[in-house]
Structures are given as structure tokens and as C-alpha cells.
Amino acid sequence: MSNLGNSTQTVCNRIQLIRNCVDYHKNTNFSDSTLKCKKCQKDHFLENNECKVRQLIVDRCLVYSDITDLCSECENDFYLNETKTLCLPNPIGIVGCSLFSEEDVCILCRSGFYLIDNVCKVVPENKQDVNCKARDSAADCIECNNGFFLQADKTCIGIEVTNCQELANFDSCSVCIEGYGISVVNEKNTCIQLDAIGQCLKRNQTSPYNCDKCNPGYFLEKENTCTFSEAVVGCFEYTDANT
């Protein structure tokens, strides 16, 4: 978005289309967008920013994984084996179980249930949360679905920060992904894309985002640049030009 006089102009940037991709990582602020594929169309899964055709077709599979060629959830009355390649009939007596370690031992209940004493019980109404992925024996949520953050009160809330590797909260990041740094906006940590420093292997994620370590064969100068050196034959990591 740019300002022309007193008016605001919105600029649409071209993205590189990925075959069979139906959703991309994009935000209102273009600099915060990776433009990588986020989700592939049906019968495909996402791997290394490519949408690959599924080779595994699992009978009775209800939901397939978005990022692997595996099943993630079976139809009612069927459970997923440990390799996630087969949906098998539920053993009698463990209704609501989605993953077994043995024919008569449940290790994970399906959504809306929690596991206690090898029995899947319905989650109490006051603890129900469709965005919860796994619960403990007290029916409290311990893991949320992708795209959601587990709060202190054991509820799941949608994540509002992008390009984050480790969250501090649903709307604040503690560690950004590679190539991004922390920027504090309204007392919340967001991730902004950093300008490249040639031959820099590791960047400091806080302003001024200096280079902390250079690629092998290079040393870090005071000017925050990585310079090639052949002073020591066979040296993998330099501390200065000659050491």
C-alpha cells in the first residue's frame, strides 16, 4: 500500500502460482507474506512447497493429512493404526477411540471425547472446544489444532501472528522463522522479513538484526558483513580474518 498525495493506493503483487495449490500464506501487509502454499486441493498433500498427488488411498478414511500422504482420521466405528495407513474396525467396548496401540488399548480418543482408564468419555459441555486436538484424563485440552494456540485456561484461540516458529501468545511471537526478525508493534512481537546479509548464516532476531555467524570460510567484520578468508587452510569457522 502506498500514499499518493492524500490518497492511498493499493498495489497487487504477482505471486508464483503452485500447481494444485488452493490457499497461500498471504497477509494484508505484503512484507509479512511468505506467499508459499498453505493448502493443496483434494487428493493432494503439501510437501516442500509442492502439491503432490496422493498415492495412499485408505478405505474408511474420513480426513487425510494436509502435509503427508497419510490418513489422519477414520470414519465412525473405525480406528487409525499407528502407521496411519489403515482404518480398522473398532474393537468392541472402546467407542470413540481414534488411535489404538493394541487391539484393546486406546491411546487417543476422537474429537469430543477424552481418555480415562482406557475408556473414551464425552467431554463435559463446559470444556467442549472444536479446536482442541488432544486432552488429558481431566478432559482439559493439552494440544490445539494447527493454527490455534493453547491458553492458560486450556482453551484454544486462533493464532494472529505469521512467520513465527515459537509463540509467546496467540498474537505475539518469541522466535521467528529463518529470514524474519522480531518487531514490537503495540507491545506485541510480530515477525518482519529481514534484508539479506550476504553469506550470513545466523541473524540476531532483535533490532538492529545484526549477523551473528557467517557461512563456513567467511568471518564477521565490524561493519556487519561476512568476508571470505583463506588465511587458514581447511578452516571451517573463523573468529576473525586470520583465526
Keywords:
single chain; 243 residues; mainly beta; two-stranded antiparallel ribbon; 0% helix; elongated
Question: Could you write a compact summary of the structure shown?
Answer:
By secondary structure, this protein is mainly β.
List the helices and strands and how they pair.
Blueprint: E1 2-4, E2 7-9, E3 21-24, E4 37-40, E5 44-47, E6 50-53, E7 61-64, E8 71-74, E9 78-80, E10 87-89, E11 97-102, E12 105-109, E13 113-116, E14 119-122, E15 132-135, E16 141-144, E17 148-150, E18 156-158, E19 164-169, E20 172-176, E21 180-185, E22 188-193, E23 200-203, E24 211-214, E25 218-220, E26 226-228
Antiparallel strand pairs: 1-2, 3-4, 5-6, 7-8, 9-10, 11-12, 13-14, 15-16, 17-18, 19-20, 21-22, 23-24, 25-26
Can you describe what's shown?
- By secondary structure, the protein is an all-beta fold.
- It is built from no helices and 26 strands.
- The chain has strands at 2-4, 7-9, 21-24, 37-40, 44-47, 50-53, 61-64, 71-74, 78-80, 87-89, 97-102, 105-109, 113-116, 119-122, 132-135, 141-144, 148-150, 156-158, 164-169, 172-176, 180-185, 188-193, 200-203, 211-214, 218-220, 226-228.
- A two-stranded antiparallel ribbon has the order 1-2. The protein has a two-stranded antiparallel ribbon with strand order 3-4. The protein has a two-stranded antiparallel ribbon with strand order 5-6.
User: Rounded to an integer, what's the Rg over CA atoms?
Assistant: 24 Å
Task: Note the beta-strand portion.
Answer: 35-45%
**How is the biggest beta sheet arranged?**
2 strands, antiparallel
Count, helices? 0
Low-confidence parts, pLDDT < 50 over ≥5 residues? 7-11
**DSSP strand tally:** 26
Label the overall shape. Answer: elongated
Structural class by helix and strand composition: mainly beta
